[in-house]
C-alpha cells in the first residue's frame, strides 16, 4: 500500500535556479500521497526553474520565507540546482527558516546542491549526509560525514545526490512525513 500523508503540509523552499525535476518530482510525490505542498521563496511572484543550466518552467510562489512559520508545516524539502541553494544561503530569512526547521526534529529532505543551505544554517555538525559530490568539502568542513549513497537518512534528515536518486529520495521523504 502506498504511503499516505493526508493532512500533512510540506514546505518546498526554492528560488530562481531550482533544478526543475528536483522540485516537481518530490512535490508530485507529496500531492499523490495526499499531502499539501507549498512553495516558499525569497521572492514574490514566480520562480524560474532550470534543467541543468537551461531555463525550464516557472512556478508560482505561495509564500515568502520571511512570512513562513515552521509550526505551519510537517516537513521541509530543499531541492537543488546550482544557483537556487546559493541564493537561499545568502538570504538570512531562508537560513533562519532552515535552521529553525531542523531544530524542531521535523523531517527535512535535501537533494543535490540543497544541502548547501543546511551547511549555511549550521545544522550538519555531527550528522551524516550525502549531496552532489562537489559539496563534499563544504559538508565535511561544516563537521558532517559525507557519504556517497543514493539516499541517506540521519534521524529526521533525508539527503540524496542527484536527480537519478529521486525515486529513493521521494520514498524516504514520504516515509519520514508519515512516521
From TrEMBL:
- Which terms does the UniProt entry file under GO BP? proteolysis
Q: What class of enzyme is it?
A: hydrolase
| Entry keyword annotation includes Protease | yes
| GO molecular function list | hydrolase activity, acting on glycosyl bonds; peptidase activity
Q: Which InterPro entries match?
A: C56_PfpI-like, Class_I_gatase-like, DJ-1/PfpI
DJ-1/PfpI domain mapped to chain residues: 8-175
Q: Record keywords: Transcription included?
A: no
- Give the UniProt keywords, A-Z: Glycosidase, Hydrolase, Protease
The record's listing under PANTHER family reads:
DJ-1 PROTEIN (PTHR42733), PROTEINASE (PTHR42733:SF12)
The family classification in the record reads: Belongs to the peptidase C56 family.
User: What name goes with this protein?
Assistant: Protease I
What species is this protein from? Actinoplanes octamycinicus
Amino acid at each position: 500500500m502506498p504511503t499516505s500523508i493526508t493532512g500533512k503540509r510540506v514546505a518546498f523552499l526554492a528560488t530562481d535556479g531550482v533544478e526543475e525535476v528536483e522540485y516537481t518530482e518530490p512535490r508530485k510525490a507529496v500531492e499523490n500521497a495526499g499531502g499539501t505542498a507549498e512553495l516558499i521563496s525569497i521572492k514574490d511572484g514566480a520562480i524560474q526553474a532550470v534543467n541543468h543550466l537551461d531555463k525550464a518552467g516557472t512556478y508560482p510562489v505561495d509564500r515568502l520565507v520571511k512570512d513562513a512559520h515552521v509550526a505551519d508545516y510537517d516537513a521541509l524539502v530543499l531541492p537543488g540546482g546550482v544557483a537556487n541553494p546559493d541564493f537561499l544561503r545568502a538570504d538570512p530569512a531562508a537560513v533562519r527558516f532552515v535552521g529553525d526547521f531542523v531544530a524542531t526534529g521535523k523531517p527535512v529532505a535535501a537533494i543535490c546542491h540543497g544541502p548547501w543551505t543546511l551547511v549555511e544554517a549550521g545544522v550538519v555538525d555531527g550528522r551524516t549526509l550525502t549531496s552532489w559530490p562537489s559539496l563534499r568539502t563544504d559538508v565535511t568542513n561544516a563537521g558532517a560525514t559525507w557519504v556517497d549513497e543514493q539516499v541517506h537518512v540521519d534521524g529526521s534528515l533525508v539527503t540524496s545526490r542527484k536527480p537519478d536518486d529521486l525515486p529513493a529520495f521521494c520514498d524516504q521523504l514520504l516515509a519520514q512525513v508519515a512516521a
